[in-house]
Amino acid sequence: xxxxLSIIVPVRNAEAHLHRQMHELLELLPDLTSDFxxxxxxxxxxxxxxxxxxxxxxxxPQLRLICHGEPRGRDIAVKTGLxxxxxxxxxxxxxxxxxxxxxLRRLWSLRDNPQIVMARSQRQAGIFDxxxxxxxxxxxxxxxxxxxxxxxxGIQMIRRDAAQSLAGANAVIQGDANIAVCTTAPIDRL
Length: 190
Description:
By secondary structure, the chain is an alpha/beta fold. The chain has helices spanning 15-32, 49-59, 74-84, 101-109, 130-138, 160-165; strands at 5-11, 36-43, 63-68, 89-93, 116-121, 155-159, 172-175, 179-183. The radius of gyration is 17 Å and the shape is globular.
């Protein structure tokens, strides 16, 4: 099993939050695997995002910076990251909100299922602070019914070998309120 991981973080004008976000990822990712990289794709920022990312990349060899000279859009930034990613499992941060460690671990655990091509974790909308929900979820309390409504965003996982073999295959999408999974065949339980 190849435990290499690439996480793609497309950003634009994220100078104010980039340092904190990268440190959070750098604290969490070694718990998943020692073989990881973080690809920051700067989509033509007009602030000092690229300078901040370069400074972080000098300090942390797991970080790489790719810059677009002008804004090309989030989808192109993700494609740029995908073309440079070296990991067998690829995570794409869909927005710049905090990444849920629980959802990240759950997505990472799905990488071994040969039928899963892609899985997505969505941010939960609700009346509670996200840090409080994270702790309660980690403790195993049954709060799922309070946070059923999901908003766009979150993080997604892609298995490189499964995605490459999907050409022409039928995909099935299933899941729960927190994790949606795209598989090559129905699976009984995640």
